[in-house]
Amino acid sequence: MKTAGMDVFKQQNVEDFYEIGEELGCGQFAIVKRCREKSSGLDYAAKFIKKRQSRTSRRGVSREEIEREVQILQQLQHPNIVSLHEVYENRTDVVLVLELVPGGELFDFLAEKESLCEEEATEFIKQILDGVHYLHTHQIAHFDLKPENIMLLDKNLPLPRIKLIDFGLAHRIQKGTEFRSMFGTPEFVAPEVVNFEPLGLEADMWSIGVITYILLSGASPFLGDTKLETLANISAMSYEFDEEFFSHTSELAKSFIQQLLEKNTRKRLTIQDALNHPWIKPSNPKQALDRRLSVINLDNFRRQYIRRRWQLSLRVVGLCNHWARMMKKGHRKPEDELHGCESDQEDKTEDETHQEEEQDLLNPDPPPYLC
């Protein structure tokens, strides 16, 4: 098995081998740009990750975290998961050269459709489940499943292939080892994340439940006016199937969502359970017909989803504009301006660090890597 050692992190200038093109996205500690390999002429996505310069600093991503992401990506080879091509490193950045996924986000694609029935929707959910099944078979949890990380390889096909992206928060779950952390996007995190309880593969299944809820309605089940309210809604299991959005939704679809949005991780659907659920895999003609006849209200979907995208875009544009202003002024080096809520105090006690982790979840910056 390959490891993310120095032989993988090429100590060469990425621009000697790739032509760097336009920016595709920016995030907390990374910028993604289109690139073209000079030797082959093939296009890829170059993810420039800002390295943390000291152990006590909170600016940038630690070498350990980058190595973990690289190790996980190296081990993954599945049609529904983005692939890693090469890794380069310089003094300030690690550059992951990744498979280019140019088809845009799944939900943007669905918002442009004229009609959509549940049978069609399950074809996309099934691809997500297939990718997650591969991860979970290898005891890997993604921990950041959300619409922005579900991309299409080619949106011009009748049934585009889905690609799961952004493995910056992914972890291998070790049996017998308790893992706790407060990270992710509040809207999609499971109750065990909010409550700082041991985490496992089950957290991904909760996120799939939230994604499915949004796909069928455009509305978000737990999203509040503030991040604190969102987290409180998750912890309290405060959601419902509003008749305005779910009047044409099948009982099978609601059952699928309810069994994923289960607070008790032992009762929550596993990935295999989800793949075998009758909404995904009908066991009789009536179930198949119910799916086919249940139509998603795309007007509601577009209205609600566009509102959510607008809120996200404001946060991301604000961050990118902040970088641009600082670089133009020459006030500080770009790497010193990456984290808007950074403290100037670099040395922290363990308790202070834990308090900051909680605060970061309650008031997170834009997603770490928007691809």
Automatic annotation (TrEMBL):
Keyword Kinase recorded: yes
Bias kind Basic and acidic residues: ranges: 333-342
GO cellular component, one term: nucleus
Keyword annotations: Apoptosis, ATP-binding, Kinase, Nucleotide-binding, Phosphoprotein, Serine/threonine-protein kinase, Transferase
Positions annotated to bind ATP: K51
Matching InterPro entries: Kinase-like_dom_sf, Prot_kinase_dom, Protein_kinase_ATP_BS, Ser/Thr_kinase_AS
Biological process terms in GO annotation: apoptotic process; intracellular signal transduction; positive regulation of apoptotic process
Pfam families, per database record: Pkinase
Needed cofactors: Mg(2+)
Gene3D superfamilies assigned: Phosphorylase Kinase, domain 1 (3.30.200.20), Single helix bin (1.20.5.460), Transferase(Phosphotransferase) domain 1 (1.10.510.10)
Keyword Cell wall biogenesis/degradation appears in the UniProt entry: no
Name of protein: non-specific serine/threonine protein kinase
Source species of the chain: Aldrovandia affinis
